[in-house]
Specification:
It is a single chain. The protein is α+β, with helices and mostly antiparallel strands and 380 residues long. It has two domains: 2-65 and 193-378, Beta-lactamase (3-Layer(aba) Sandwich), CATH 3.40.710.10; 73-190, Up-down Bundle (Methane Monooxygenase Hydroxylase, Chain G, domain 1). It is 29% helix and 16% strand. The protein has helices at 2-13, 59-71, 113-117, 132-138, 153-161, 177-190, 194-206, 262-273, 286-292, 299-304, 306-309, 369-378; strands at residues 19-26, 29-36, 52-53, 92-94, 104-106, 226-229, 235-239, 259-260, 277-278, 281-282, 313-314, 319-320, 334-338, 342-347, 352-358. β11 (313-314) and β12 (319-320) form a beta hairpin. α1 packs antiparallel against α12 (369-378). The longest helix is centred in the middle third of the chain and has 14 residues, at 177-190. It is globular and about 55 Å long.
Length: 380
């Protein structure tokens, strides 16, 4: 842990991040290291209870919630999503990935619930952002780190339906869009807004008291200021504690809308490590947890998703390591990274949880040097 503290301290001292929280849990042993401050001015020290915009490490939580509805029989993995998302009833697909958006063919089959969970609905981001259908998607799938920029879910879904699929349903792993679709599906299939469903079914039972789609005024003294690199070696403010998360956005994003703490995400991680049980209750079956944390991709799909996956696989809502490329890539390791500078993983074979929370945005899909050094320290 001294090496981890030195690592975090080094990135704070060189101005890469104003502060950071690193958590490592092995069984009942939990160690937390903090460094720096909640903002660049140093007005408050970073601590274990600091609140962060966790971005895409929201995705595993959303996948777990959708699987709860599957277990209840409200929908099935092979169910076409059009029963709840009728806007997607007649999707079309570009003839080839490089084809113009008006050169389309009908989808060969409906999009299913499992397509959404495995991030293979046909919408999403590949390695080549210049493709016409991807450029069209950028007009709808905006930067999730600014949730107030999205319209309401019904409008967003109508706009998405006008964008052709890049690939046939189930054919290719594509990043991003599937998790937001999961969030809308949860709300419609349950008949409840996504924030309410997650609060009742996951956050309350697990004691995740600080996790939500907004930060009320009484908690904002613990809320970090968010930054992005300014292109000149410094940082510029991306969001303040009284900014984007001061109210629930019109579109509560299942792909990246949550605010949380290291201990709250640890509670969710332990749910997965315990096979879906917590506090003497079964929230999710071991079978569902197994499906979440098992790679569902073909070798070809992993290869085409390499910009994001770096050779690893994808379960439901997160990546699954299949190859020990780096010291931290333990086969079966499950988790993901967030574009606001966050990362969270579990290693089922060892019962290990690692969580890194910072408040500086990633500039591209490649994990940052700080993330890699954090993983290197915690792999020891």
């Amino acid at each position: 842990m001294s090496a981890l503290h030195e690592t975090l301290r080094r990135y704070v001292d060189d101005g890469t991040v104003p502060g950071a929280v690193g958590l490592v849990a092995r069984g009942d042993s939990v160690q937390v290291v903090t460094a720096g401050a909640r903002d660049a001015e140093g007005t408050a020290p970073m601590d274990r209870g600091s609140l962060f915009r966790i971005a895409s490490i929201t995705k595993p939580v959303t996948a777990a919630a959708l699987l709860m509805l599957v277990e209840e029989g409200r929908l099935a993995l092979d169910s076409p999503v059009t029963e709840w998302l009728p806007e997607l009833a007649d999707p079309v697909v570009v003839r080839t990935p490089s084809a113009p958006v008006d050169d389309v063919v009908p989808a060969a089959r409906p999009i299913t619930v499992e397509d959404l969970l495995s991030s293979r609905p046909g919408w999403g981001f590949p390695a080549d952002f210049s493709l016409p259908a991807v450029q069209a998607l950028f007009g709808v799938q905006k930067d999730g780190r600014a949730p107030q920029a999205y319209p309401d879910p019904d409008t967003w879904l109508t706009d998405l339906a006008r964008v052709p699929l890049l690939h046939q349903p189930g054919e290719a792993w594509l990043y991003g869009t599937a998790s937001d679709l999961q969030g809308i599906l949860i709300a419609r299939a349950s008949g409840r807004p996504l924030p309410e469903f997650l609060a009742e079914r996951i956050f309350a039972p697990l004691g995740m008291k600080d996790t939500a789609f907004e930060v009320p005024k009484e908690r904002r003294d613990r809320f970090t200021t968010a930054y992005r690199p300014d292109g000149a070696g410094g940082l510029e403010v991306a969001d303040t504690p009284d900014g984007e998360w001061s109210s629930v956005a019109a579109f509560p994003s299942g792909g990246g809308g949550l605010v949380s703490t290291a201990d709250d995400w640890l509670a969710f991680a332990r749910l997965l490590l315990n096979g879906g049980a917590a506090g003497g209750r079964t929230l999710l079956s071991p079978t569902s947890v197994g499906r979440m944390t098992t790679d569902h991709l073909t070798a070809a799909q992993r290869e085409t998703g390499a910009l994001f996956l770096e050779g690893q696989g994808w379960g439901y809502g997160g990546s699954v390591d299949v190859s020990p490329v780096d010291p931290w890539n333990v086969p079966g390791r499950y988790g993901w990274v967030g574009g606001t500078g966050t990362a969270a993983h579990i290693v089922p074979s060892t019962g290990t949880v690692t969580i890194l929370l910072t408040q500086v945005a990633m500039e591209n899909p490649t994990p940052t040097p700080l993330m890699r050094d954090f993983w290197r320290c915690t792999a020891q």
